[in-house]
Batch of 2 targets.
Target 1
Amino acid sequence: MTLQVAPPEVGTSPDVMATAERRRGWLVVAEQESRDLWTSGRGLILLLLFSILLSAVTYLTSTNQALNFLEQRESVNLVLQLAVAVGVLVTLVVSADGISGERERGTLESLLVTPVSRRAIIAGKLIAALTMWFATFIVTIPYVWVLARGVGILGQAMALGLFVGTLVAVGLGSVGLLISGVCNSNKTSIAASLFLLLILFAPTQLPSGLPQGWFFEVLLRANPVASALAYISSMLVEGHSWTEDLSYLITPLLTALIAGGALVFAGPRLLRLTPGVSAG
Amino acid sequence: MIMLLAGVLSGLPVAALADPLNVQVVAQPPTVSTVLGGRFMITTEVKNAGSAPTGQILAHLNVASIAGDVYVDPEDWSQNRSQQLSLKPGESRKLTWEIQAVNSGRFATYVVVVPFGDSATGNEPVKVSQMVTVDVAQRSTLSAGGALPVVIVVPVLIGLAAAAALFRVRRRRGPAT
């Protein structure tokens, strides 16, 4: 990214400068990063792949002749869980490119000399990555609408998806930026992030027929993705109230707080030309 | 001698010493008509018709298909299928059961009362309510036709937007040298 914040001596008009001064640095970075993401077509291509995946799953679900009422709730749950999981995945991929990508493209130096604090740059990058999550969520709405018709859970499913998904996206987006800050290359950063996500998704893929003792429960609750998906499932399929299984959201919340906090404190040290927090 | 007597007594069937379960179980309403996914409630009145307390007893709800070849998993129909209670002589208790019809067809729901815990010896007769007939009509709310416009239109629109963005980027960069 090349941040377009002109220094005073360039001769920018006083009105533009005054506007730039009024606006906070993180907002400028977020706007510029988001513009880069969406106008370059990168975000739209990820969104296209996401919509193709949701289309395939939605079509398969709705053509199942044996589908009954309960399974319809489950199909809403399936699509929403998939949307949250893949939405978080693309957010993680975008954020994992945040710092290491700038280093690799040689644009980090010009970014560091702009009159914006390093924390503001990090915050702006996180917000830009989160636009990816919000875009995937908006794309999910028509699919969930198609599946939730007649069951009366559209509003509940959308509110649930937005709240839980945003919580997980903030946490894992922050983790992605932290990984990006310590990695030498963009490839390493993205590979490490994807591997992390794979580890987090693994418990959700265990067959439900397996005996699930206390160890599985600990594994589930310690995992921000699995526990967030379990919370969605408990409300949509089992019909629990929003307070009944709130403990499932402790790990996603802690992940967002800890990773976000680490980003705030370690961010300025991560955003440097050489990778790592202790590099010179 | 005492040991021998105790051994003989412990070998006797305990049911022979205890009062048999003397309760009446009445279920209401006699029939229910609903659609697939519909929620309904049945009530059962359990009355101790005997002269002794029942001790701990368990009322348990069950569902069975009585037409066609429909597999029934009662756990899907009701999350709370067991209620524990104890009744004094002459006392009665009304129990409610929340049920959701998860299959279409014709079903019988009934409540069976059995002794629970220490009061169960394994030899008592169980008491069963009369059955409540449940007719569940099919309801199909999902169709491939309904999903098709969304399934096609959404990726097409996003694909067009992505193509336009890529075209603009290439034009801005100019022809490749």
Target 2
Amino acid sequence: MRTLRALPTLWRIGVAETIAYRAEFIVWMLTTTIPLIMLALWTSVASEGPFQSYSSSDFVAYFLAVLIVRQLTSNWIAWQMFEDIRLGVLSMRLLRPIHPFWAYGISQAAALPFRSAIAVPVSLILLASSGAHAITTNALQIAMMIPSLALAWVISFGINFAIGSIGFWVTQAFAIGGVYFTLYTLLSGYLMPLAIMASKYPTLTKLTWATPFPSMLAIPVRLLTRNLATPEIARMLAIQAAWAAGSILIALAVWRRGLKHFEAVGG
Amino acid sequence: MMRYLRLVGIQLRVSAAQAMQYRANFLIEGAMSIVYIAMTLLPLGVLFGSRTHVAGWDLPSALIVMAYFIGVHAVIEGIVSPSLVDLVERIRNGAFDYVLLKPVDAQFMVSASRYEPWKIIDLMGAIGLAVYAFSLRGAPPAPADLAAGLLLFGAGVLATYSLWLVCAATAFWVVRLDNLVYLLGSIFDVARWPIQVFRGLWRIVFTFVIPVAVMTTFPAMALLGRGSARLTLATIGGALVMLAVARGVWRFAIRNYTSASS
């Protein structure tokens, strides 16, 4: 109840932070432009003839969808937590009567309107102009994009929060963040559609579907770009929901164990 | 000059001592390097799994570009990045004053004052990859090409360093820039692909605006014997121009430093 009442204030703080650190915010946004480079790469490969089943405009639609999903679901809370733990700022956060899981979550969510204001119109115009026929026409699927994106956001935030909590044990945890990001880029369909990866590395792709990474990117993108049957849509959302619940549980468990190690460095 | 060399020696010793303090990191970093290289190769495997040639590059030659990418990345991450991350932090909290007070060029201090010796594993990985690529091709590089390739490796490192320095210099105006390293990483990521893969506007951007071609593609072409004297000279010239520009930007930026705390 107390958390609920604090929500609007936390939201306003998050918005103010985004505006105050706008340069950092823009740099973070620019780091999520890899899909555009991948788009250039794969369309030029496909211009010599379709690559497997993907034509040039399939790639355009795929990577623009990736860009939208990535902009709306990525967060970098792990990096902020490393900093807060290392510099002792966390002590202050712990004194507040709200679980940091909520506080961090809302501060990240507050940046979403800004990010969508920049990324979504541009991508939608590009999508409509050059990849329109490769987007789904199923109204149910388009409607299901909203819960799918929300679940992807929760998974991404939960995992980031868990990784950030590792900072309690290791002071230089940035390397772990790097490993996470490398895994994410390869296993989520960020660099190429997972269907393409499956043709060369079938076992690896099967393993990929057992990780949370496709739920963070590949599933929402699939909902937007492929026409799927209703049971398949339900199955995709169920996978995402399971991972969302799992990642919240893991995040809170790692946090609780890590907190016992907190030494309030410098604080 | 002697003083700088002595300084490098001392800092190397300190960094090595620090690295030896965390010996467990050797295993972690080693394992991570292997994972990193394997992951880097994955998209290449997919691409060449369905095509024998992409934009005139076959698998072994593309592996050479990848070896340059990993190699340049290792040198930059091992020598330049740690110091530049410190720079951003120091500008924010005002500790940069002490760097300026030291009787050596401040650019030297912020470019090479802390090292990450374990990155040598990545460098070995890059060399191993290059050897493997040449064994796939079935013929070792000609001695002249090898010399040109090594020389241009230096040019690639210089070009990358220049880009890093320019970006880090923006920290003088923008207060909080902890995430700079990730931005640089994602720009540099383009360099793992031969520049010919990109078309039209993209190729112009990656050749002249953000010259990733100078960092990996041109050196790889020289090593493969596909370059020419003109390309070699142009690459070296390009790297030197970038270095001069970076130096200029740095000197301009440093004049804007107002000291955060005092």
